[in-house]
Amino acid sequence: MKFGVQKSCWEALTFQLQNAPGLRTDDFSAISAKAALLRRSRFMTSHPLSRRHFLGTALATATGLSLPRFASAAEKPNSVFNGVRVGCITYSYRSMAKTAEETLKALVEDGLSETELMGGPTQLFAGIKGGKITDAEREQQIAKCVEMRKMFNDAGVNIHIHKMGFGQSNEEIEFNFLVAKALGCTAVTTERNAVLAARVAPFADKHKIWVGFHNHTNNLPEMDKFDAILDLGQYIGFNLDIGHYVAGTKGKSPIPVLEKYHSRITNLHLKDRTADGGNVEWGKGQTPIKEVLQLMKKEKWTFPAEIELEYKIPEGSTAVAEVKKCVKYCREALA
Predict the structure, then answer these.
(1) Rg of the Cα trace of the chain?
(2) Which is the CATH superfamily of the domain at 77-333?
(3) What's the half-sphere exposure (Cβ side, CA atoms, 13 Å) at 76?
(4) How confident is the model at residue 56 (pLDDT cuts 50, 70, 90)?
(5) Among 36, 115, 237, 272, which is most exposed with the fewest C-beta within 10 angstroms?
(6) More confident residue, 273 or 22
(7) What is the pLDDT of residues 91-121, one digit of tens each?
(8) DSSP three-state, residue 161
(9) Which secondary structure element, helix H or strand E, spans residue 331, and what is its range?
(10) Which has the minimum average pLDDT: 22-26, 192-196, 243-247, 331-335?
(11) With b meaning 16 or more CB within 10 Å and e meaning fewer, what string describes 255-267?
């Protein structure tokens, strides 16, 4: 398939998604109807549910995994505290959750209504393996992403960002943005890389979806001048990791970074680190998590703040239990 030459099934699918930018659970039937019409067109063919996905679902049932059911919206998780959107990057559950169903169960148990979703659960659920595949297979994968979005939304969880590798080709980059739209995301996150930023910027502009570049300790946002990476595109931004910032600057506060770049921040990563590089339980390090959250509340900034569990899980505890402690910390900081 030649990218961008004639009206391919990808373009048709993009049109369908662009006509439902605010898709929520109650819009799913409308999108399903559009997808059905599209599949009957000359651009696409339908495919049965894969045997692997069927077996995966059967296995989940056999092992007792069941997603929570809610009688009303009031019973669904809500982690928006006094206007501040507290979420969790699902990397936090890496020790115990691999599938989309397991990941969703962990988020709901922790009372989280917002998430930055790592690529693994999406790839497993949608059958995304990379490599060269047909247009019809791509369409089926996007449809599965829409289905996964519905599953999360039904449980009360909003996938506001996803983090899946962009790949090397234009087709793979385009597909990543289509996945973002299908999941209901406003941004895609990745590791800081100026070459990649220049490559993806036109796609971000086209789809009006942000790309947030994540910092570690050695690639921090520029403070003595305007950071040049942001000049590469109007939808290029920062996934600011405040814990890594503290460790990378030997103890400096990340608050001036938020004050300078708040309009270009896609989301925060919250963790407690020390000036000498330690990863510790929240409240024991030097990262001003409470002060950052309170500043977000005061300024009414709407980008989400993601819990990222990186300290060693205490013996006898679990990732879910430790993330729940972090949620409690955020709730109390914003009370």
Answers:
(1) 20
(2) Divalent-metal-dependent TIM barrel enzymes (3.20.20.150)
(3) 13
(4) very low
(5) 36
(6) 273
(7) 999 999 999 999 999 999 999 999 999 999 9
(8) strand
(9) helix 319-333
(10) 22-26
(11) eebbeebbebbbb
Element (H, E) at 266: strand 265-270
What is d(CA 112, CA 108) in angstroms, rounded to the nearest whole number? 6
123-136 per-residue burial string, b: 16 or more CB within 10 A, e: under 16: bbbbebeeeeeebe
Q: How far apart are CA 208 and CA 204, in angstroms?
A: 5
Q: Which residues contact 135 (CB under 8 A, 6 or more apart)?
A: 1, 8, 9, 10, 43, 44
Q: Given the structure tokens 């270009």, which residue do they identify?
A: 264
- Cβ within 8 Å of residue 54, ≥6 positions away: none
Mind giving me the DSSP string for 37-56? HHHHSTT----PPPHHHHHH
What does the alpha-carbon distance between residue 104 and residue 96 come to, in Å, rounded to a whole number? 12
Distance CA 82, CA 326 (A): 16
Q: Which of the four pLDDT bands, split at 50, 70 and 90, describes residue 289?
A: very high
Which residues, other chains included, contact 22 with Cβ-Cβ below 8 Å and sequence gap of 6+? none
Banded model confidence at residue 131, pLDDT cuts 50, 70, 90: confident
Cα–Cα distances in Å, from 320 out to 27, 86, 194? 31, 15, 35
Q: Quick one: pLDDT band at residue 26, thresholds 50, 70, 90?
A: very low
Q: How far, in Å, CA of 289 to CA of 311, rounded?
A: 15
Average pLDDT taken over every residue of the chain: 85
Distances (CA, A) of 321 to 12, 100, 111, 255: 44, 19, 11, 28
2 has a pLDDT exceeding 80: no
How many residues are given for the chain? 335
Give Cβ neighbours of residue 206 (< 8 Å, ≥ 6 apart): 177
CA distances from 152 to 38, 56, 146, 318 (A): 24, 18, 10, 22
Where do the structural domains in the chain lie, given as residue ranges? 77-333
